[in-house]
């Protein structure tokens, strides 16, 4: 039988793309870094859509970017699925995001 602390840590980790059985890294730190990354992606899409709309005059492309923003925000608010967070942890596992960005979780992500 699992202890409640271990099973709750496992459920939190599986929600945030950490497949460890006993993850001891700070979930609040991991979540903050991933959310900051996701917010940066959202800001980049918003700026890109604005520039495409006003500067380039490509309204269809700008609306497509706005649609992507709306879908990703809807997934986060409706289902609790943070696509940007998933991309953040995938980037850490692939080595695209330096380990220094999230010091607490870098050793655990490499171990999997």
Keywords:
0% strand, disordered N terminus, elongated, mainly alpha, 72% helix, 112 residues, 5 helices
Q: How does the SSE layout of this entry go?
A:
Blueprint: H1 4-15, H2 27-56, H3 59-79, H4 83-94, H5 106-111
Helix pairs in contact: 2-3, 2-4
End-to-end separation: 24 Å
Strand content: under 5%
Number of strands: 0
Helicity range: over 70%
Radius of gyration: 17 Å
Helix/strand-derived class? mainly alpha
Overall description:
The protein has one domain (4-111). It has 112 residues and is an all-alpha fold. It contains 5 helices and no strands.
Task: Characterize this entry briefly.
The protein is an all-alpha fold and 112 residues long. The chain is 72% helix and 0% strand.
């Amino acid at each position: 039988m699992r202890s409640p602390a271990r099973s709750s840590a496992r459920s939190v980790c599986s929600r945030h793309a950490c497949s460890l059985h006993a993850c001891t890294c700070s979930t609040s730190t991991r979540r903050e870094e991933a959310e900051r990354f996701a917010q940066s992606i959202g800001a980049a899409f918003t700026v890109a859509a604005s520039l495409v709309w006003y500067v380039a005059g490509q309204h269809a492309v700008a609306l497509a970017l706005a649609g992507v923003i709306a879908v990703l925000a809807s997934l986060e608010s409706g289902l609790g699925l943070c696509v940007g967070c998933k991309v953040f942890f995938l980037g850490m596992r692939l080595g695209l995001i330096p380990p220094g960005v999230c010091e607490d979780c870098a050793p655990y992500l490499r171990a999997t």
